[in-house]
């Protein structure tokens, strides 16, 4: 029984390794020559697998692209979790995360835009989608830590602050995929700085001061 379980475990690891290798080489091909100009046989050759093996994992090239789009959300979640465990204030963590994202967008060029569009298209109409839920969870954890540490305002519920952060991030991404020549790198930096100020205790004091003057 133990040997059977070990065999299954080895097979599952092998399948995962092959799948990950196919996705990794496909990502490089798509960045270099675009989705439309990349052929399945090129991906299979780069991954050192037969075309039949490719289709065992991905029925079509579009299915592979969809999986890549879904994993970009997981990648952002990992970035946020790494920032959460790192040093620095909550504001610095947000700024680092947005800078890291800018670097990834620059590295991947137009492919990054296509991946985001694919993730948006895959979301059922009228739903928030698993991708948004993951972002809420990851950003919310950073903000909750900040409240406990004292560098995030407490006059608003954590859910509201999380919505504002995710909304700001989402607005920049939405503009980037829909507006030609949108300055996404500058906007991400500006948005991170603005959100960092808005969630800080200083932001709460400024709001209280304005209310007192009215």
What does this structure look like?
The protein has 214 residues and is an all-alpha fold. Helices cover 81% and strands 0% of the residues. The protein has two domains: 1-58, Homeodomain-like (Arc Repressor Mutant, subunit A, Orthogonal Bundle), CATH 1.10.10.60; 60-213, Tetracycline Repressor, domain 2. It contains ten helices and no strands. Helix 5 packs antiparallel against helix 9. The longest helix has 32 residues, at 2-33.
TL;DR of this structure?
By secondary structure, this protein is mainly α. The protein has helices spanning 2-33, 40-47, 51-57, 61-85, 90-108, 110-122, 129-149, 158-178, 184-198, 201-213.
Largest sheet at a glance?
none
- The CATH architecture term of the largest domain is Orthogonal Bundle
Taking all Cα atoms into account, the compactness measure Rg is 21 Å
Task: Assign the CATH topology of the largest domain.
Answer: Tetracycline Repressor, domain 2
Helical amount among residues, as a percent range?
over 70%
For the record, the CATH class of the largest domain is Mainly Alpha
CATH superfamily of the largest domain: Tetracycline Repressor, domain 2
| Shape summary | globular
Q: Please work out how many helical segments DSSP would assign.
A: 10
Query: Which structural category fits the helices and strands?
Result: mainly alpha
Low-confidence stretches: none
Order of helices and strands: HHHHHHHHHH
Overall number of strands? 0
How many domain regions?
A: 2
Distance between the terminal alpha carbons, to the nearest Å?
75 Å
Strand content: under 5%
């Amino acid at each position: 029984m133990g040997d059977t379980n070990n065999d299954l475990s080895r097979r599952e690891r092998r399948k995962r390794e092959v799948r990950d290798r196919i996705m990794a080489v496909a990502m490089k091909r798509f960045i270099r020559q675009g989705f439309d100009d990349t052929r399945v046989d090129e991906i299979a050759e780069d991954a050192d697998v037969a075309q039949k093996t490719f289709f065992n994992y991905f029925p079509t090239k579009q299915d592979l692209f969809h999986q890549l789009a879904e994993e970009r959300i997981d990648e952002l979640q990992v970035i946020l979790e790494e920032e959460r465990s790192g040093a620095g204030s909550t504001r610095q963590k947000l700024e680092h995360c947005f800078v890291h994202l800018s670097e990834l967008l620059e590295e991947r060029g137009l492919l990054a835009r296509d991946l985001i569009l694919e993730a948006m298209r895959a979301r059922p109409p009228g739903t928030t989608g698993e991708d948004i839920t993951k972002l809420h969870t990851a950003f919310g954890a950073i903000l909750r830590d900040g409240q406990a540490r004292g560098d995030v305002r407490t006059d608003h519920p954590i859910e509201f602050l999380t919505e504002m952060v995710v909304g700001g991030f989402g607005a920049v991404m939405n503009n980037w995929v829909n507006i030609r020549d949108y300055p996404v790198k500058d906007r991400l930096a500006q948005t991170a700085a603005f959100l960092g100020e808005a969630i800080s205790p200083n932001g709460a004091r400024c709001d209280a001061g304005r209310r007192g003057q009215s």
